[in-house]
Design a protein that fits this description.
Number of domains: 1
Strand content: 25-35%
Mean pLDDT: 81
Order of helices and strands: EHEEEEEEEEHEEEEEHE
Number of helices: 3
Radius of gyration: 17 Å
Distance between the termini: 41 Å
Helix content: 10-25%
């Protein structure tokens, strides 16, 4: 099964990988996360969020805030914002401890039950979302370019191509500035040739924008979603969401 997890608690670097940092300096260690399934996804605590930080910069869209990181962005009304403590991550399929390869906190999801399957025939269905978007801290990164490349590739590998890294292609890193004037590094990774062994298998794509937050630490915003499928999120929509990424403090609300 594809190891994508959702946990209500923050998955902190100290207790999981030594590399994954999702919010600010107050992240609390979480118990070992569980594998994704319909039951695991719905058992996470916290109510789904609507706009909880200021007004959207795009009329009719929703504000998504990672308050611990101090970052906000907007998503179209069809997206669902998860609770502020919700964490989505990917891990190696054969890792019994499910140490995250990459993660995002307080994400928004599009069509959370886009595809449902029981690949291992154990009687427990697993839901696959069409797309996810969220933010995280990258305190272990050496540069915004390195963070962007690593995160985008990890999302595509973790969700779509395991165990084959060769099916992931990462583009050239470019400089990007959002509408708020936030500058950083932007890159997109894509997969090709993913074999459709199970009902929900598909190629995927991930776009990561890495930048420096208000505390001077590296942070990133990532979109990850299925590619080459009906309803695929257009690159233009991904770019429009990206353009709204901005630094945020509670006083901004």
């Amino acid at each position: 099964m594809v190891a994508i997890g959702a946990a209500a608690a923050v998955v902190a670097a100290a207790s999981v990988t030594g590399a994954v940092m999702l919010g600010g300096d107050n992240d609390d260690p979480a118990p070992a996360p569980t594998k994704s399934s319909a039951s695991a996804s719905t058992s996470a605590t916290g109510n789904p969020r609507t706009a909880d930080g200021g007004q959207p910069t795009v009329a009719g869209w929703k504000v998504v805030v990672n308050a611990d990181l101090g970052v906000a962005f907007d998503v179209p009304p069809s997206w669902t914002a998860k609770s502020p403590s919700w964490v989505t991550y990917v891990a190696e399929d054969d890792d019994p401890e499910e140490k995250p390869l990459v993660a995002m906190k307080a994400p928004a999801v599009l069509k959370e039950k886009w595809c449902t399957s029981d690949d291992d025939k154990d009687g427990h269905s697993e839901d696959t979302a069409l797309a996810n978007v969220g933010t995280r801290g990258n305190n272990g990164a050496t540069s915004t370019a390195a963070a962007a490349r690593a995160d985008s590739a990890a999302w595509v590998y973790g969700l779509y191509t395991q165990p084959d890294h060769k099916k992931v292609a990462t583009g050239t890193v470019t400089e990007f500035t959002t509408a708020s004037g936030l500058t950083g590094s932007l890159v997109t990774s894509r997969s090709s040739g993913v074999a459709k062994k199970h009902k929900c298998d598909s190629d995927g794509k991930a776009t990561t924008f890495a930048f420096t937050d208000a505390a001077g630490d590296f942070a990133s915003w990532s979109f990850v979603g299925a590619a080459g499928v009906t309803g695929e999120v257009p690159d233009a929509t991904v770019r429009r969401i990206l353009t709204t990424v901005r630094l945020y403090t509670p006083s901004d609300g």
